[in-house]
Amino acid sequence: MKKALALILAAMMVLSVTAAFAEDVTLTLWSIATESDSSHQAFVDAIAKFEADHPGVKIEHVATENEAYKTLIKSAMSSGENLPDIFFTWGMGFLGEFVNAKRVYCVDAEYEAYKNELPEPMTVNVRYDGKMFGVPYTMSLVTLYANLDILKEVGYDDIPATYEDMMACCDKLVAAGKIPFGVSGKELWCLSEYVEPLTIKSIGGQKLKDIYNGVASWNDPGVVKAIEAFQNMKAKGYFDPSADALGNDEVKNNFIAGKYAFYQNGSWNNKDIGEQAKFAVKAGTFPVLDPDNASLYAMIGGPNNTLAVTESSPNKELAVQAAFELAKFFSDADYKSGANLPCWAADPEAKVNDLIQAAADMAAKAEDMVLFGDNFLSADAANTYLDYIGLAWAGEITPAEYAEGLANDLGN
Amino acid sequence: MKRPFSYKLNIFIFLLPALALFVGVLIAPIIVSTYYSFHNWNGLTTPEFIGFKNYVELFTSKSINITRALKNAMLLAVFSCFIQLPFALWLALRLARGVKGGRFFLSVFFMPVLISTVVIGQLWLKIYNPDYGVLNLLLRSLGLEKWTRVWLGSKDTALGAAFVPILWQYVGYHMLLMFAGIKGVPPELSEAAMLDGCTPGQVSRYIVIPYIRPILRVSVIFAVTGSLKSFDLIYVLTNGGPNHATEVPSTLMINMLFLRNRYGMGSTIAVMLIVLCFVFALLINMAFKEEKGR
Amino acid sequence: MSKKAYRAPDAPRKITWQSATAYAILVIWALISLFPVYWMLTFSLKTNPEIFGENVMGLPKYWVWANYDRALNTGNMPRYFLNSLIVAVSTIMITLVASVMATYAMTRLEWKNRKRMNKFFMLGLTVPIHASIVPLYTTLSKVHLLNTLWALIIPYSAFSLAMGILIATGFMGDIPYDLDEAAFLDGCGVWGIFFRVIAPLMTPAVATVGIYTFLQCWNELMFANVFVTAPQWRTLPVGVQALSGQYTTEWGPIGAALSIATIPTLIVYIFLSRRIQDSFIAGAVKG
């Protein structure tokens, strides 16, 4: 009797679910994959596939340009009105503030079904108090892109493996009239793409995480050492002297045009650099500053691009299902197109370009992976942190002042 | 005239569309901003009342450094009033006096205003680019190598470099306003003056400029409030950098509202800007009236 | 009647070094003002390497017309253009009607506090638009106007109002009060005076207010991005912005889209600028 009842109940549930699906449901998805974004096609294809698999469900995709998107999602979250069902977000700090405001739906229950395809370590940046609030799809690593043609001119055929050798190489480049590093001094996050690898390779990944989490103090000799190295590199003219006037777009185009020996930025550049650079290019990582604390494969980066579901969505279950399915699709598509690294288990047979292969190898070897500081920290702290990097870059503060100032202003 | 009730009702009806729009869209958000300026709020969780703490922090915090932002904005207002407006007036007077191809000039001078800030911003980024920018190339070709600079990236030049496009873009805007005013000057007045032997310069000085005083007042108000609120081109050209050297109140406000999630502090800056602009608008009005009285 | 505003009828036009210098300045300034148009048109036909350094200011080496294909086929540009046009025209009309009516009440009708009311409207010049985004978002959502063109038309009109009133006040002050009185003696009421005397004489203001209002809304991006997310109601600047990606931006198609957005404006403006001058002269004659 009990069994029969359970069967009937189950049948009813199936019926009601199918009934709910049979009615037309529209899910709204907000993202930054504008028509010109490299991942736009992946969004179109993924949505088409999901709609084909789930008749009666329509996904309305609204893409907004990166900077404008931040204003849009913050305004909408702030008023709590007119929110989408699914939205694109970055992990840690950015999503965290929405989670704190209880605007985001917890996806723990639904994750069980995808556990094998999306390894748990990949979900660290969307977990708050252990609970999972988003579905990551791609991850990025800070990558040191090298123009091997220029390196050859000064007698190197690979990225120098030690810090001393790297400095020697840069000296030779400068002597030969070449600019070792391209960076945008105007966009502070680009400076952090240099400061953070130096920092993690001076103090190690665990320590850096502890500092971000407020467990350890910024005022650390290793942090000071990293900034000393950074300022030293600048003083010796290793960076483009025009850096302060350039945006990242310009710097990247300069690198592609062969102006710099190295360009250090996120692995999302793999596709552009791989396709457009007319010289031999290699993707690697910056050498170790302090071998006692860190190894070569202490990396900055991690799973970041994420889809999340709003608490206010009237079709949460369906939306979560869509979020997982779409994320899985994007992960694969971005990897195969060479745009970025997958969070989801990748197809081992997939043929990818050399740069993304190199990035994947680094990710596999990574002993530690710490997310970009401006993503890790909360919005206010992140901007204070970037300000300090800007001051250190301009030489307006000493390394010691940098460490003390951050310790004071960020409260640890 | 008799003033029946219907007269008052009519006044109200005439004011209604403007008032409704104004109160609903402008005044209500000002009130909301004022409310949040007394709170510590990240835009998401429950606001926490903190009295005047935001205001105190705004004017004392070294990292926000509102004084520098205000100084920059005031400097822009001064340049605007004493370089941009006189030049625009000169253009307007010259064109109104009638020159060959006057209509062509009139249309062309206004064009920079019609072009999207994105284009203007990118164009000037290319002009200032330290490597392939026109400005440095020009200096190099003139043998003035030592004058070349990282214009938008160096602390000493960034502010000036960012001001030039802002002032340049809106010359046409003010010129058109003034031209419109000058065309409204009754021709008999200036003709009579000319017959009395006045030079065109004297006609401009003693007849035209006093006549278009109301338009000049509007121009000055636009120039000053526009400078205090300036945002778009600064954002594109320097985004407040290098190291906040070109920060203006609006860039600080955006930073607080949408980057740092400090909605309360962002609102505080907004309230300060509103009050400041309003006071300046009133002062300018008074200045123009006083002179008229003399 | 002479169309020249002020010059002694028989004054001979002498070429002096002064007028020559002045003319030279006008020509140089015209070139400086035209340059952005030239630059926009050329970079709309270039590739990224040319735009970034290889050939910044010159004519394109290869004319990349494909940029225009990209621009036109991204999203729904014709639709965005139409939306922008509807928004601009509606905003201009609402601003004109509201500001001329309010100006009439504040300058021609006598009542206590009318000066104060005028100052109150001046507040409109002072509000920075970014500060009102969140409060407006909430309000527009509550009245179910988000994701409609009204979500742009209403705020744009409100933000143009102060300027409209300022300009209209200037123009209305030029209309002699005798006309009101004559109309009053003819038996016109408040409305009669407004429609028969004031409104027809305000035509010069129409062009001026129209142009300034248009400028406020045609390139506006902040509100357009936040208040309208439905793709079918997006405006042109948002469409142009969709051409820049998260990590990569090809500037050629952006230039093309900006050219498509700007050229009609320039043409309409050139056409209108004639009308403005003519309407002013007409106003001057009657005055």
Folded structure, characterized:
The complex is a heterotrimer of chains A (412), B (294) and C (287). With 412 residues, chain A is an alpha/beta fold. Chain A has two domains: 21-139 and 302-358, Periplasmic binding protein-like II (D-Maltodextrin-Binding Protein, domain 2); 141-300 and 368-409, Periplasmic binding protein-like II (D-Maltodextrin-Binding Protein, domain 2, 3-Layer(aba) Sandwich), CATH 3.40.190.10. Helix content of chain A is 49%, strand content 17%. Chain A contains 17 helices and twelve strands. Chain A has helices at 2-22, 40-53, 66-79, 93-100, 108-111, 148-153, 163-175, 188-203, 205-213, 221-235, 248-256, 270-276, 316-336, 354-365, 373-376, 379-394, 399-409, and strands at 25-31, 57-63, 86-90, 127-128, 131-132, 135-147, 179-182, 260-266, 281-284, 298-309, 341-342, 368-370. In chain A, the strands form two sheets. In chain A, strands 1, 2, 3, 6, 7, 8, 9, 10, 11 and 12 form a ten-stranded mixed beta sheet that branches. Chain B is mostly helical and 294 residues long. Chain B has a single domain (31-293), classed as MetI-like (MetI-like fold). Helix content of chain B is 73%, strand content 1%. Chain B has helices at 5-37, 53-60, 66-96, 102-114, 117-128, 134-141, 158-169, 171-183, 187-195, 200-211, 213-229, 232-237, 249-259, 263-293; strands at residues 39-40, 48-49. Chain B has a two-stranded antiparallel ribbon. In chain B, helix 1 crosses helix 14 (263-293) and helix 4 packs across helix 8. Chain B starts with a helix and ends with a helix. Chain C is mainly α and 287 residues long. Chain C has a domain at 76-242: MetI-like fold (Orthogonal Bundle). Helix content of chain C is 70%, strand content 0%. Chain C has 13 helices and no strands. In chain C, helix 4 (77-107) runs parallel beside helix 7 (150-173), helix 7 (150-173) packs antiparallel against helix 10 (203-218) and helix 8 crosses helix 9 (190-201). Residues 1-11 and 280-287 of chain C have low confidence and may be disordered. The chains are: A alpha/beta (412), B mainly alpha (294), C mainly alpha (287). Chains A and B meet through helix 3, helix 4 and helix 16 of A and helix 13 of B.
